[in-house]
Write a structure and sequence with these properties.
The chain is of the alpha+beta class and 194 residues long. Helices cover 42% and strands 29% of the residues. The radius of gyration is 22 Å and the shape is elongated.
């Protein structure tokens, strides 16, 4: 392959939660600032209209900052050791503190795909939340690795991955960003056919 690539592993969901919480507070402060300036600029303004404007601006600032939140979360994940592809060796740090290594010059099995999931919400058992899971399973000798991405299947569909039935995950399992999972899997596919 002649290349050295790193793919960040998505760590705890807490980092995304804290980024969202900070963004929520910053959005509220920014909306309050804009509403305060409007209140000072306009001598007569209805209080209800000001509250509606504040709520509207708060939601807009928060949801329009979502791409920025994802970039910050990914940048934080990039600071930690990730999956390293160095020529014919794939090195994978697991959550258990162990490091798995796959020698890509030897035969290995690669399964991948995506599927929809339905989760019953706890608060309302009659309601279902739909989600998408993109996955890849790498096997060599006695080692198996389950890679997954829960946020999108857009990259997998664009790469021509087929929709599959739900599968039983193996351990260890690691979460990646969807684009990184597809890019890594496509590199492993091309390497296997060479």
């Amino acid at each position: 392959m002649g290349r050295h690539l790193n793919f960040p592993i998505r760590r705890s969901r807490w980092s995304s939660f804290f980024i969202g919480a900070v963004t929520l507070v910053l959005s509220a402060l920014l909306a309050a600032g804009v509403s305060g300036v409007l209140m000072l600029a306009v001598t007569r303004i209805d209080g209800a209209l000001l509250i509606i404007l504040f709520a509207f601006l708060w939601c807009c600032f928060f949801f329009f900052s979502y791409p920025w939140q994802r970039r910050v979360a990914r940048a934080l994940d990039c600071r930690r050791p990730g999956i390293c592809l160095d020529d014919n060796r794939l090195t994978v740090p697991t959550d258990a503190g162990l490091t798995m290594q796959f020698n890509l010059s030897r035969p290995y099995e690669l399964r991948f795909g995506w599927f929809d999931t339905q989760v019953v919400t706890v608060a309302a058992p009659t309601m279902h939340t739909r989600g998408v899971l993109t996955y890849a399973v790498l096997s060599q000798d006695e080692q198996q690795l389950f890679l997954k991405a829960e946020d999108s299947a857009r990259d997998a569909v664009a790469a021509g991955w087929s929709r599959s039935n739900q599968m039983t995950p193996v351990t260890p399992a690691l979460r990646l960003w969807a684009s990184d999972l597809v890019a890594l899997t496509e590199l492993l596919r091309k390497h296997r056919t060479q």
